[in-house]
Structure formats: structure tokens, C-alpha cells
Queue: 3 jobs
Job 1
Amino acid sequence: MAICVASQWIIGGLVSLPFTFYISPYCAVPQWLLFYTVLIFIIVPALITLIINLKIFKHVHDSSKRIHQQMTATTGTIIIRQQPAINRRDLSLLKHDLYVFNVYYWMDSNFFS
């Protein structure tokens, strides 16, 4: 617990260092610092959120494939039921993930405009 809190404080301090050293009087901000701001506050969190949501979706999709039966045995014959590539539960999760990502990205990008 203490390592997690300490690492967040250290990373937060390191991320904010360029702002303390490179903002000159009258709020003149170098061009690279504006790019750094967009990168740190919009692009990196959006990528982290997208990667985490994709990992969640992959885990749910894999568990759905394990849960649903692929074959049903009847009197001596095997009937193979064709499962759709993506079922309704997975599709609903994917839609929800995309919606949450779009809302997050839209709110985050409107905050800086």
C-alpha cells in the first residue's frame, strides 16, 4: 500500500517538473510544453483506458467461450452447434466500453479547448 502511494506521488512530481522550470514570466509557455501537456493529460490516459478496456473485453470474451457448450451429445451422434463469433453479452460489454471511452475522451478533450 505504501509503495503504491509513494510511487504515485513520485510519478506525479516528476510529471509536473517541466511546468515548474520552463514557464517564464507573463505565462509564456514554450511550444514543446503545450505538446507535453496534451500528451500527458489526454493521450496517455486515453491509451491506458483503452488498453485496460480491451484487456477486460478479451477476458470476458474468453470466459464466455469457456462457459458456453460447443458440442451437445445425443443418441450416438454429435451435433455441433455453431456459436456466433461474438454473443450478445460480449457485444453489450463492447458497446458499453466504447461508450465510456468516448465520453471520457470527449470530456477530456473539451476540458482543454
Job 2
Amino acid sequence: MAVLVGKKAPAFTAKAVQGQNIIEEFSLEQFVGEKYVVLFFYPKDFTFVCPTELHRFQEEIAQFEARGVQVVGCSTDSEFSHWAWLNTPKAQGGIQGVSYPLVADINKTISEDYDVLAGEAYIDEDDNVEIAGELVAYRGLFLIDKEGIVRHQVVNDMPLGRSINECIRVIDALQHFEQHGEVCPMDWQKGDDAMTADHEGVSSYLSK
């Protein structure tokens, strides 16, 4: 798996759906210099674990907005599938009420660039294209800073839902570091003591 942390987030332009609107050319470039981005991938529309994650991001959308973070979802479904799912009530397995953009990676290129595409395409001995597994996205999540640099990534296998609390915690840690120059130890939470990046600062922290 590619490690994108510390690197420029792969650029893309694709169709997306936000609310009732289909966006013909959606790009993360619009957020550079303006917002942080949480870009998360999920396997499929109209499934079981996926809507629990999409609804959970929506439930906490105010938390992300307060931190200047734009949430963006992405799967290998089409924009029409996204639109239909967004128009299906929650009680019927839909995600009606989700307000953040959902990118349509129908050509699989975005998932491939972020190295979260499951399955594999190859050419057999007869020059036929063969597919091993299913070409859908793992549950990848990428925190991208205002300069367009990936600062955090995590990838779960398809049966394993993510933790939105951990996502918010890492955003808080990044923003604390940017604002104060202090590094954040394991399990650090907003409001906890952090550490200066020198021996004196570490010793001071550990003595508490």
C-alpha cells in the first residue's frame, strides 16, 4: 500500500453529488488555502456498514465545520447511484439528509491513485482482461491540510467500520501542532497537555 502522508494529495476532477445537485467537475483544488479536507472512501452504495458511516459523518458535520474541515465521500459507484441513494429515506437503507459531496469514481482511477482499490485487473496469457476480486474501494480515510498535503491516512478492510471520534481527534492534534508547535502524544485529546519537540519539553511532560 502506498503511504501518502507528507505528500501532495492526488488530484482529480470527477462528477459528484451534493444534496439534489450533480456537480459535473468536482475537484479538491477548490479547498486549497481555504479548508482542510477529510476524504473518505467506502465500498458501495446501498449496502449495510456504509450508511452507518455516512450518517455518522453527517451527524457530526458541525464538528467538522467548526474546525474548518470539508468532508468528502467517494466510492466507485456512479453519480446516478449516489443521487438515488441520497433520495432514499434512512428507514429504507438510504442516506437522505447527507449534505456533503459524494464523488463518483466510476472509472476507479481515484481509488487507484489513493491506493485503496480492492481487487486487481490483469492480462491473461490470451491477452484477455481478467479481474481478481471486486474493483471497489476499501474504507480509506485521508486528512488533507490547507496546503493540499496528506497528513493522516487509515485504511480498513470492508467489514470494519471506522471511528469518527478518532478522525476528529487527529484533526485536533494536527491543528494544535500547527497553532502551538507542540507535538501530541498517544491518546492525546483536545485540552490535554502536549509536548515541545525537545528533551526538556518531553521531560517536563513526563514528570506530570
Job 3
Amino acid sequence: MRHVWPPGGPPGELDRAALAGVYAYPAELPRPFVRVNFVASADGAVHVDGLSAGLDAPGDRPVFGLLRELADVVLAGAGTVRAEGYRGARTSPELRARRRGRGQAEVPPVAVVTASADLDPDAALFTDTAVPPMVLTTAASAGPARSRLGDLAEVVAVGDTDVTPAAVLAALAERGLHRVLCEGGPALFGSFAAAGLVDELCLSLAPQLAGAGPGRILEGPAAGAGGVARMRLASVLAHDDGLLLRYRTPRGDAAAPPPGVDPLSGTT
């Protein structure tokens, strides 16, 4: 995997440490920093036959693992969790040691956003994990979910009748989970974008054409004037025929201005 953009970044082929430097979260985080990660085909499809695994983006798997390693929490909607057969984040003695060195918990929990909390306690999310997942749900659904899931998960009521992005981030912040990796799906990404709560988008571009039918990485209206949310290209990596793109939103740049930019005025 090699660095392409910006100029002056790490030269040539990147080892694991250099790659971690590219994707490092800002050092100081007074609030949750939301990084969204998706893979898409060259013609914009977010899945093939209903699964993102149908998209083959060279370099995506190691970056996917690294993004999870760097995160405090992995956030996903219930539909994605069910469709993709989610389980807990993978770990190893080396991964645990690196996370301890950064002052993080040894394994990031998966946090599921769901109004209904309709999750199968026999699913791999609960049975194949090093740490219990979090279930972020409504007050009405929390009680039945606690009875059904027991000690398999931490069930958190974050709203009376709805689960909003702001309430989700507030619950994560209360637990010291500031490095947020959102893995979708498109509806969850859309809700965070519409609320103006996305800091960064990591997009792995698969060199394939999916054809008509599959949806895009975002569902719902985009944030910003005219329905268009502007982003800044922060880095580009290339691996074989795949591209790994990283974009920052104005919100993300406010949290961590790019080099040479005044954090107050936004000018160089």
C-alpha cells in the first residue's frame, strides 16, 4: 500500500506504523469524533447481493482492521448488524498491547443503534465477542431488551421514542468513548450526516462495476446548503487497483485543523 496524497506525506510503501499514522485520530478530543467507513464500487454501489463482502477493494481489509484497532467504539445500525452477521472485534495479544499503549480499552465494543432492540441473543454479536456489545435503544425497548439479553450486552436507553445521533454520541461520551468508528449502514450514516455530526469519511473504492440496483453509501438528505455537504480530501492511498480515500468535513477540520490552517479563521 502506498501513499498518494497529500504531497509531503509518508513516502512509498507504508508499513503498519506509517499506516496507523495516516489514520490516527486527533490527539485532543473534547467531544466524540465520528469517522464513517464504507466500501463502494466504482459506479457507487454499496453492496452486491445485499452484502458489502461482494465488493472487492484491494487494501480494504487491512485498513478495516486498523480502523477498528484505533477506535474506542464500533458503531453500527441494527440492519447492518443482522445483514452482515456482525460479531465482536477481533483481537490478539499484539492488538491489546498497542491499544493499552494508547490508553484505550483492550478491545473496542460494538455499539448497535436500534429503536426496537429486536436482536437475537444467539447471534454472533453476543456469542462470539471478547467484550459485551452495547445496545443503544429507546426507553420503551430498553426494559424488554435487558430481560431478553441479560448480561450479554449493556442496554442503554438514549431516547423516549427515537434514537437520535446527538443522543447516541452523548451516551458514548459519558462512557469516555470519543473515537467513534461508524460502519453504517447507509441509513445510520444518513442520519449522522443530516445532523451535521460526521467528522470524517473513509471510502474504499473497489475497481468493479456493480450495475443497476444497489443503493449508495448514504440514505436520506445530505447536510449543508442545497443538500450538498462539502468535504476536503485528506489522504489517498493506493493498493493494486484499489483506492482508499479519506475526507474531512468542516466539523472534522474544526476538531483537528489541517497543517497551516488557522483553527479560528479556517485560513492559512
